[in-house]
Amino acid sequence: MARASAGRQRPGDADPHRGPCPVRSPGAPARDGRGDESSAPRQDADPRDADQDRRRDGPRGDAAAAPGRAHQRDPHPPAQILEREDRRAPRDRGDRVNVAVLGASNGGFTTAADLALAGHSVRLWGRTAQALGSLAKDPTIALAAEGRAGSARLARVTTDLAEAVAGAEVVIAAIPATGHDDLAKRLAPHVNERQIILLTPGTLGSCAMARALARAGAMLPFALAETGTLPYLTRKTGPAAVSAPVRAANLPLGVFPASRGKQTFARLADLFPAARPCVDALDAALTNAGPVIHPPLVLLNAGAIDGGRFDVHAAGTTASVRRLIDVVDAERLATRTGWGYPAPHYELATYYEEARAAEGLYGAGAKAKLLASGLWSEILTFDHRYVTEDVAFGLALFESAGRAAGVETPGVSGLLLTFGALLGRELSGRGRALEHLGLGDFSRREIRGFLDQGWESPMWAKVIR
Fold first, then answer.
1. How many helices (H) does the chain have, and how many strands (E)?
2. Is beta strand 98-102 parallel, antiparallel or unpaired with respect to 170-173?
3. Residue 52: predicted pLDDT
4. What is the dihedral of CA 336, 342, 195, 112, to 10 degrees?
């Protein structure tokens, strides 16, 4: 083992292929006998890509400068690292990426099929053979998606997590946020320092998963990233078929640590051209439309939902529901402003008002496409991710982030209290609330610094306790 110098690496210096040596989290137990499980080469970041502090107008458009950091980086103790190993030459942009997609539900199938049809090498992991179904014999998924359709043949389909992630450059967790902690424990023996882990979406899961990996004694990846919303609005239409009538037109992407955002974004934008760089992971998490739209839809349509199959997006979006959605969204926007995050804020009005749809997460015509598909007429319960994820994780984060920013959130807090009563458990301060992630005793400035520095922050040892 060797020690890094006390001087901090500046943003843009790190590279997932040639970059810093693997870091073990201070205070976390070391794992012995770790081999390098990734043989795939990494690429240098293209200097033409916008950095993490910039927003783009288009997939490869010009970037506009965002406001400066709200803090200066603090000195920190040297990180414990492994000896540097040789790296193979970086690859040219546009080459095939080795991807592991974790999760065999709607999003997992669609992500795997879409990226395979785009020319990437994709392995799909499912927890059980039942979840993978017929793919175990024929690893081919029929995809009908906005902008891409066809039969996608995957490189491998497996229930062996080690097999799925070995050699992967990017590991995509296409699962609800409720599964992140368990997945981190499963991933801990298999992560290497050159990988990027992407959560779609995250709800600040990049920070939570890094914390869980560290507590498990895992080698930390190059970076963890998260999208602010789902890359696709999708449903399975058969055992090996998926339909995605709507694809994200603007996909907010935050990176933890944010100081590694430039290289991480450059790699992930090759997979998701609609990605838009955020300042940090919390910036991305506060663009999430799910906690804004789904809790009001479920709560105010509870009677109809109890009656059986129901499309909350079609029949359930009444004037009263819209009013509550607008209240929650206004509180989200005020919270973003309180934290100093720049536009675009992806107001929910951009989904409901076609005149503004191009500014939104899913672009022009998204609402009409979703309703026309008829795929969201389904049986909902309080075990659905609209509640277990968007309420228990998403709204808990919104409330705590609002409190930290001095923003009152009566709409969000009221929903948490009501759903808490229906579920019979406390929701405030749990899930992805900042205090539940070990960040409750820190100021906004300190948290922003932590999100930038990640496991190189002097706060890291306290956060992972």
1. 17, 16
2. parallel
3. 35
4. 80
Would you state the torsion angle of the CA atoms of residues 229, 233, 237, 243, taken in this order, to the nearest 10 degrees?
-120
Element holding 264 (H helix, E strand): helix 261-271
Residue 253: strand, helix, or coil: strand
Nearest to 108, CA basis, from 266, 195, 230: 230
Residue 164: which of 87, 236, 209, 103 has the closest Cα?
103
pLDDT in tens, 145-162: 999 999 999 999 999 999
The structure tokens 């942009």 sit at 93
The span from the CA of 138 to the CA of 368, in Å, is 34
Classified as helix, coil or strand, 350 is helix
Q: What is the DSSP string of 288-319?
A: -SHHHHHHHHHHHTHHHHHTS-B-TTTTT--H
Which tokens hold the place of 15? 């590279």
Boundaries of CATH 3.40.50.720 in the chain? 98-285
Cα separation, 448 vs 452, whole angstroms: 6
Superfamily for 98-285?
NAD(P)-binding Rossmann-like Domain (3.40.50.720)
Is 76 buried (19+), middle (13-18) or exposed (0-12) by CB count in 10 A? middle
**Dihedral of the CA atoms 193, 199, 203, 207 (nearest 10)?**
-10
List, in sequence order, every residue forming a beta bridge with 149; answer none if it has no partner: 144
pLDDT tens string 291-320: 999 999 999 999 999 999 998 888 899 999
**Residues of the chain scoring pLDDT < 70:** 1-94
Output the pLDDT for position 344: 96
Query: Check: CATH 3.30.200.20 for 290-432?
Result: no
Category of 365 on φ-ψ map: left (φ > 0), alpha (ψ -120 to 50) or beta: left
Provide the pLDDT for residue 83: 30
Spatial CB neighbours of 443, under 8 Å, sequence gap ≥ 6: none
Sequence ranges of the chain with CATH classification 1.10.1040.10: 290-432
Q: From CA 44, how far away is CA 216, in angstroms rounded?
A: 30
Decide the pairing of beta strands 140-145 and 148-153.
antiparallel
Torsion angle defined by CA atoms of residues 77, 81, 87 and 91, in that order, rounded to the nearest 10 degrees: -50
Q: Which residues contact 48 (CB under 8 A, 6 or more apart)?
A: none
pLDDT given at position 371: 86
Task: Identify the DSSP state of 240.
Answer: T
Please state, in angstroms and rounded to a whole number, the distance separating the CA atoms of residues 81 and 278: 28
